[in-house]
Write a structure and sequence with these properties.
By secondary structure, this protein is of the alpha/beta class. It is built from 11 helices and 9 strands. It has a 5-stranded parallel beta sheet with strand order 7-6-5-8-9. It has a 4-stranded parallel beta sheet with strand order 2-1-3-4, with helices on both faces. Helix 5 packs across helix 11. The longest helix has 19 residues. The structure holds N-carbamoyl-L-aspartate.
Length: 309
């Protein structure tokens, strides 16, 4: 049994560099195992619950794909309105209930801290697929894996994270992983959507070189990886403020070609306007390969947490 067996996956800060390495190596193993076949029977009989109280395309479907390709089964719901939450049931009671059925729980919920609350009442390990504007560690892991597969190594890359750094849970989790690899981090955002100061301070304490700017073109010049993010409309109290900020950054093909043709372009998706469609066929545009990587990384996490590999 590895060190992840039986553990909840709640935030990016919980991993050591050795654990990150191991997860990525196991993801590579599953990538190889799936060559030339549709699925494995490693986890036959196991059941995963996917409890999604907030919208999702990739996270839920890739968890479900991962479990099914491992040979396991899936039960779950895709919106709060489809669960007894709509009748007034508490999160704790819903989790206690699902805990009677399944071996592992993947969940997404609008409240920061909800995954931890679920983990406190569940026997089954809980995988946090996004808790409000908090954390999204499984996305961060597939992002890290994508940097490794696109660039050959993670160490020493300059990573530019651009967009909504205040509410973006993928970047909150991601920086906790990059800090293990001596990456320089450049944060590009509107003033009002800066990375939370406590996260910036902790990174600097860890010894990470962090720069903050509002200027994407300037940041792009030294970038190895550009990680674009969506302005998180659902977290804004004032719709007018969202309208003002929504198109703050739009990456165009011309910008990439002029400023940094070798850059690896990533995005957790969904994209709204922040990457023009004609960027998609540039060789560095990695965001749909990133989506596919999510399946291998989630297969690795499920198998490791359940002690099956
Ligand atoms: C992200 C999320 O839900 O936080 N999407 C994802 O999981 N791939 C990013 C976003 O919604 O902007």
């Amino acid at each position: 049994m590895g060190s992840l067996a039986g553990k909840d996956i709640l935030d990016g800060a919980q991993f050591s560099r050795d654990e990150l390495q191991h997860i990525m190596d196991v993801a590579d193993h599953f990538l190889e195992e799936l060559k030339g076949r549709q699925g494995l029977d490693l986890m036959a009989g196991y059941v995963m619950g996917t409890l999604f109280f907030e919208p999702s395309t990739r996270t839920r479907l890739s968890f479900e794909t991962a479990m099914q390709r491992l040979g396991g089964g899936v039960v779950g719901f895709a919106s709060a309105s489809a669960s007894s939450t709509s009748k007034g049931e508490s999160l704790a009671d819903t989790i206690r209930t699902v805990d009677q059925y399944v071996d592992i729980i993947a969940m997404r919920h609008p409240e920061i801290g909800s995954a931890r609350e679920a983990a406190d009442v569940a026997e089954a390990p809980v995988l946090n697929g996004g808790d409000g504007a908090g954390q999204h560690p499984t996305q961060a892991l597939l992002d890290l894996y994508t940097v490794r597969s696109e660039r050959g190594r993670i160490d020493g890359n300059t990573i530019v994270l651009c967009g909504d750094l205040k509410f973006g849970r993928t970047v909150h989790a991601g920086v906790e992983l990059y800090k293990h690899y001596g990456c320089k981090l450049v944060f590009v955002s509107p003033e009002s959507l800066r990375m939370p100061p406590d996260i910036v301070a902790q990174l600097r304490d860890w010894g990470v070189t962090v720069e903050e700017t509002t200027d994407l073109e300037l940041a792009l010049k030294g970038a190895d990886v550009l990680y674009m993010t969506r302005i998180q409309r659902e977290r804004f109290e004032d719709p007018a403020e969202y309208e003002r900020l929504k198109d703050s950054y739009i990456l165009t093909r011309e910008m990439v070609q002029r400023l940094q043709p070798d850059v690896t372009i990533m995005h957790p998706l969904p994209r709204v306007n922040e990457i023009a469609a004609d960027v998609d066929d540039l060789p560095g545009a990695a965001y749909f390969r990133q989506v596919r990587n999510g399946v291998y990384v989630r297969m690795a996490l499920i198998a490791l947490v359940l002690g099956c590999i």
